[in-house]
Structure formats: C-alpha cells, structure tokens
Amino acid sequence: MQENKCPFALDTLGRDLHGEAARLRAEGPVQVELPGRVRAWSLNSYESIKQVLSDPRVTKNARNHWPAFINGEIAPDWEMISWIAMDNMVTAYGKNHVRLRRLVGKAFSPRRTESLRPRVIELTDELLDGMATAGPGEIVDLREKFAYPLPARLVADLIGMSETARARTAKVIDMMVDTTVTPEQAQAVLAGWRSAMLELIEEKRRNPGEDITSDLIAARDEDGSALSEQELTDTIFAILGAGSETTINFLDNAVTALLTHPEQLDLVLSGQRSWDDVTDEVLRTESPLAHLPLRYAVEDVEVDGVVIPKGDPILVNYSAVGRDPALHGSDADVFDISRPDKEHLSFGHGPHYCLGAGVARLIAETGLSRLFARFPDLSLGVPPEELQPLPTFIMNGHRTLPVRLTKVPAAV
C-alpha cells in the first residue's frame, strides 16, 4: 500500500460531512483513516468519482481483491466488517455481478415499480393519519413517524418480511451504518442481520408469496443461474438496507431543505417547479448516502494524477459530488430547485447504478406531495442549527427531525 504518513482521520460522528469533503477535495485523491486505523483512498470530486464508478479495474469484491482482507489482516470484529463480508449483487464482480443483477432486476422493472403506487399512497396516508392525532402546535419527530417507516415498510413488503421482523432487523441496520460502534457491536451486527435473513428465507421456503425473496428462491433452479445460499441471504439484506436507509435520509433531508428554504417550497406548491426538481436538487446537495465502503483497485489505477496501487481500498464520497464547484460552480452549496443542471451521482453510475431508483422517486414524489398537502403549515420545531447529524460518515441524515404540523395556538 502506498504510504501516507499523516492520513486524514474521518470524523466517525459525521458532524460536518460537507466541510470535510471540501477539505479533502482540495487535496485530490488522498488516503484517509477509517475506524480500526484502516486506510483507504478518499475520492471527493465529480470527475474522479464518475471515473471510478464506471472503471472495470475497480471492484467492490473484498474477498478476491483486497489483500489485507484475504490475508487475515482485517479482523473479523473490525468495526466495518458487515460492509465487506457480504457476498451479493453489490459486492460481486464481472460476470457474477451481471448474473445476480439480472435476477434482482426483474423485481424493479418500470411496470412493477408503477404497480407499487397504490401501496405507497396507502402507507403514506396511514402514517399521515397517525401524525394528525398530534395536538395543535405539538412537536412531532417526523423522521420517526414518517421518513423512517414509509420506505422501511414498503421495502419490507417487497421482500415479504413481516412488520415484527422488520422492526427487529431495523435496529441491526441502524447499528451497521453507525461508524462509532465497537468491535463487539460490529460482530453482533453481522450475526444479527444474517440470522434475520435466514429466518425470512426459511419462512418463504415454507410459505412462498408474491415477493422478491420468493422469486429469488425460485430463481436458484433456473437456467443454471442459481444463487448460493450466502448470495441469497446477503442479496436480500442488500435490498432491505439499501432500499430503506437511503430513502429514509432522503425524506429527512428533503423536508429539512424545504422548510429552511420556504421560497423553494412555494415554487413547487404553486406548480412552478415539480417534485422531480425537488428530488434531484435534494439528491445533489444532500445525498442520503455519504461514503460507501468500499471499492478496491483490481490493478494500478490512475485517478486525477494519482496512482492508486492494486489491492488498495477506495472510499467514494457521494455527498461530495453535487457540491463540487468544478461541476456546479461557485454556488454549488446553494439549494435551488430552479437550477437547470442538477447532476448528481446519488443513484450511482455505471454497472452498480441503483436498481431501486424508480421506487425511490415514487416514494419521494408521493410522500412529499401528500405530506405538504395534508400539513400546509408544517414547520421545524427547533432552529436548523440544533438538528443533530447521524453519528456516521456513511449516511447523511439527522438523529431526529422535530416539526410542528400546525401553527402554535395564539396566546389568549
């Protein structure tokens, strides 16, 4: 591994994701220190990230391409072990990735995505009805009551997971994205989500239904493209985690951005701009996924004038892309849904482009439009500067999102 005497230690509490990204971007590709004193190359510019995301010489497969992992230098209780121990569509490489992506992709066709619209509306209205019981001016945690359960319950439906099992697994996912966990907690996280997925698979073998898990179990015997047991387990978990966590943070960030920029909210509510404009500008300025661990150089790769040696890990900072001044100019930090160019890479790029992007957009449009139609006086319950970020550099969101659904009653 190429030496860097003083690697930049990423803030595990994620207190200033954008400021940290700007400082790193100014350095170009540079090594950073992850929990456990593991080093990785950090990419924070649009050009370098777009290059790496589509470069066939870069993989997400640690078991075949990260010497430190292969040689046992990465401890089984490493704080981020769940992100590299998975064997699924996300971490597969080459033909294996194509095989698994083809199997999973059937579940996210445009027709199947559109068929979810009635269920998304039903879930949205159910959650809004529940929040409507709050008293006048009462502060409600919108993340807990709306942003979290809407995508989480929909994705659980997609994989055929019961609400009880989903709620239990949600705690494990929350710990997985927390970059302050201890080695002991990291081991418990890995064991916890694998156990939950095995239980789901066993249930679906006994009682198959119209869900992705049942479809993938059936696909194991089709056309010689069978999944291994671990691929099946880990792929279902990847769908659950990726499909819920990112969309939870998107809704959190979207509501925050609109409430702190009321002139932008007026543009969409008056019909001058669309909810698609809102979605893309939120994804540009506040990507729900910050750093995604990890990618690896299959061979020496030159990125922005720096050679990343074969076998070195790479950390892509999605939250840095849309705020790169080289892409969006000096006002790249400004939230503006009227901006003509809202290019971002929040759904990825190249062979790993997010299969669930259509579902995420459906949830965004339906959830946000119905939320603001139902509660036109929605406002933050605390000053914006008091919102606390999630304790992680992997995700970009808030611990809670206190809001008032209605105006505070006037004093008598």
UniProtKB/TrEMBL annotation:
Pfam hit, one: p450
Keyword terms: Antibiotic biosynthesis, Heme, Iron, Metal-binding, Monooxygenase, NADP, Oxidoreductase
Molecular function per GO: heme binding; iron ion binding; monooxygenase activity; oxidoreductase activity, acting on paired donors, with incorporation or reduction of molecular oxygen
CDD domains: CYP107-like
Functional pathway: Antibiotic biosynthesis; mycinamicin biosynthesis
Matching Gene3D superfamilies: Cytochrome P450 (1.10.630.10)
GO biological process entries: antibiotic biosynthetic process
PROSITE patterns reported for this sequence: CYTOCHROME_P450
Membership in a protein family: Belongs to the cytochrome P450 family.
Protein name: Cytochrome P450
Organism from which the protein derives: Micromonospora sp. CCTCC AA 2012012
